[in-house]
Amino acid sequence: EQRFPDIFALAEIETEDNLKALLHEAGMTQHRSVYAESEDARGIDLCLAYHRYRLKYIDSRLHHLRFPQDSTKRTRPLLYVALQTERLDTLHIFFCHLPSKYGGTQATAPLRAHAADMLRRECDSLLKDNPWANILIMGDFNDEPQDASLAGHLQALPDTFARSVPGNLYNLMWTMAEENTIKTHCYQGDWSMLDQFVVSSSLYDKCLKSNVFDADFLLQYDERY
Questions:
Q1: CA atoms within 13 A on the CB side of 107
Q2: What are phi and psi of 103, to 5 degrees?
Q3: Whole-prediction pTM value?
Q4: How many helices (H) and strands (E) does the chain have?
Q5: Quick one: DSSP state of residue 40?
Q6: Rounded to whole angstroms, how far apart are CA atoms 216 and 197?
Q7: Judging by DSSP bridges, how do beta strands 134-140 and 90-97 pair with one another?
Q8: pLDDT below 70 — which residues of the chain?
Q9: 87-117, pLDDT tens digit by residue?
């Protein structure tokens, strides 16, 4: 029996019509979507889709980023979606595509740090009300797990703890990135783990696993590198 993901998210999608066409062509008729229009001048947006019979929509909102380093810069928002699971738990999802390294890693690091600070504040607000809130953060962070934006500003800890501490966040891709077995992004021959899953204590203690889907049809040989 064919089984689609209950939840999936896409970065760098151009229009909502493209998303609807994709869902239709894939036969994902049971899914509903939340579409996030980006302020990025290139028109690259975010979306999250969920199985409407396994998850119930509760709420969603966009957090647009404004940078003290550059008040004119516009980029992708942070997309928040709250869904109710079949067990009647609330799942708080943050989907993000943080500022890229275009212009230099060091020069753009403060932009990703600022976005991670905002993301942490949003999580802390939820955790203040409920230290065991089910929070899932995912997306393209344009940094690796050990980088300052994730390890320092978001305070996403390694996935090496036997048990969690309420209020903490844990990066499910940390060990995989360190072991260097497989990563998600290649630039000029160098592979990195830019796409990650970060979870709150309650989800971490459920022993969730993360993986990178590396099917051959997704890969293209780079003759130069």
A1: 6
A2: 105, -5
A3: 0.95
A4: 4, 12
A5: -
A6: 23
A7: parallel
A8: 1
A9: 889 999 999 999 999 999 999 999 999 999 9
